Structure to design on (47 residues):
């Protein structure tokens, strides 16, 4: 695997991990523009 392919694979793996965390803790994923506030209280307990 070339260096650029390895970097792309690492970025994709990181993105997948971040999405898994968002889904696990019920934090809504909103990739659109906004002020960054959650539409409801997140259930994330820091674990």
């Amino acid at each position: 695997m070339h260096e650029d392919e390895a970097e792309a694979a690492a970025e994709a793996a990181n993105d997948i991990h971040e999405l898994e965390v968002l889904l696990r803790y019920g934090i809504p994923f909103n990739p659109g523009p906004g002020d960054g506030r959650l539409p409801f209280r997140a259930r994330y307990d820091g674990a």
Observations:
- The radius of gyration is 14 Å.
- The chain has a mean pLDDT of 73.
- Residues 32 and 42 are 18 Å apart (CA to CA).
- Residues 3-25 form the longest helix (23 residues).
